[in-house]
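To: structure desk
From: M.T.
Subject: fold request, one chain
Message: Could you run this one when you get a chance? Sequence is below, nothing fancy, just the single chain.
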Amino acid sequence: MFLHPSNKYPTPEDINKIISIELPDQKANPILHECVKNQMIHGPCESANRHLPCMKDDKYSKFSPKKFQLTTIVDQDGYPIYKRRNNGNVIEESGVMLDNHYVVPNNPKLLLKYKAHINVEWCNQSTSIKYLFKYINKDMIG
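Reply: Done. Structure tokens follow.
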């Protein structure tokens, strides 16, 4: 999805309206909690799942788990660092407790509608276009 040029330099609040990187409270929003749990968790990796493609030489190669971040910020290059709080919500996967460190950026409305893994990222750099099309076509290319 491409946004109007007036959204080129978003505020952190704009990004937070579209993208979430947190496990919802299970009691307050059980359906969304299950969707995030089933579709938007990356992990567990390392010793729990050494066979995953993200593992290289027994180490995780994809810059995760992500660090906690109290608020969303946009760095000097225009890339967002998403709000990822330690809100106490956890799930258990393969005997490992996982929290917001492991949540993949998503849009709750899309997640609830399609109940599928849909990684949502805020991209406002023209260099992102090449990456996006390469990523979309990587399985087709071989």
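Reply (cont.): The beta strands are 55-56, 59-60, 73-74, 80-81, 91-93, 96-98. Let me know if you need anything else for the meeting.
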